[in-house]
Amino acid sequence: MSKRLIGNIIRSILRFFLLRSNLRPPKIETQISQVLYKAKKLKPYKADLVKFTCENSDLNVMNFFEQLPITTKQNLKDDPSSFKSNGRSYREVRTGGSTGEPLVFFQDKFSRRAQKRNMYFGRLKWGLSFNQDRCLLLWGHAGSFAPGIKGSIQKILLNVKDFCLDRKRISVYDLNAGKVRGIVQAINSHEPDYIQGYASSLETLAILIRSEGLALEVKNLALIVSTAEPLLETQKKVIEEAFKCKVSNEYGCSEIGVLAYSTPNGEMETVHENIYLEVIDVFERDRSKYGEIVATTLRDSSPILLRYKTGDLARVRQEGNDLIIESIIGRNHDLIKLSDGSKIHGEFFTHVLENFDSIDRFQVNQTSIDEITIILKVNNSWSDTQSLLIMKNLNTVLNDRAEINIIFDDFKFEASGKFRWIRSNL
To answer: CB within 10 Å: which end of the chain, N or C, has fewer?
Structure first.
């Protein structure tokens, strides 16, 4: 029996059990009421929910819910076990950590299944059918660097899982011109239905494919799924051209899973089965509205997180009383802070730098309150005079409130293999 046939059988069995669940959740007020009742038994929420009862007919559940305090990542870091429901079997999960401090939390099987269903249904929007799930991953895996026996076991389990699912995994830790031909051959040989990876890794591979004059020959490739990082329009265009395929964007966080996914019309659609999203602290800039995303886990999902601050910013628009997410801008900490207390969003730097055809890629690093270093990768059309023009354009907003250094050096990647185009140490 071939590896491909084994993978098809195993994935079909997993799909059957995954998708047979009830996908018609009750109305949101009922779901919020149910999760509050469960949460009042947990240490982090007990004090805030002591007065909550499902039998109180006079209580406006949504108004009560929206007055609850925000749950932060620090709350979860301080005591991850306190967010677990009793009577469940959990496994410990560690993220690679984009802030230099990995996050530890616990998940049960119901939560993991809901996450996978959200991914399936998000991809349906792009015409990827349920049986088109042969995957190639451009990925990093922080767990494979765990020391001692634990790291060895994780590597073995990862390889076994990939073999059983007939899934190809290509490390993003070392993408370079010397390896791109082998990577393209591996993709062509594997013949995936879709390719999933970090936005920055997909962009890097796309640039290498074009610069080396290579071409993908995968007749069944239906979709590129960008995840784990915000996807810029400039990145999407480069990826589409190189892979000759549609590109979707999944937004989420490790501790909850997929929260929203892009649709072919260019907007983000939030998941509904096990997540409730809010956009808070809305502000207006350049005739657009922005706000911070907070998420609440519903139904059987665990850990139970109420109004969890993801740290992400979204561009939104008003439709009646609702805020519709148009796009995910990036992490809330992807802001440049100035000495006078001002905060400049990273998208400002994108707007300045993306207008230079001579710049293939950039990264903005803030090392102190009064110093910003911009790392550039440029092509043959670059000239030194463009540095002065970049400085001038940046100072239309910065107004000399920070020293700007432009250098041509290696980009800085996180331990997880992710690439953050705005990095602030503050």
So the answer is: N
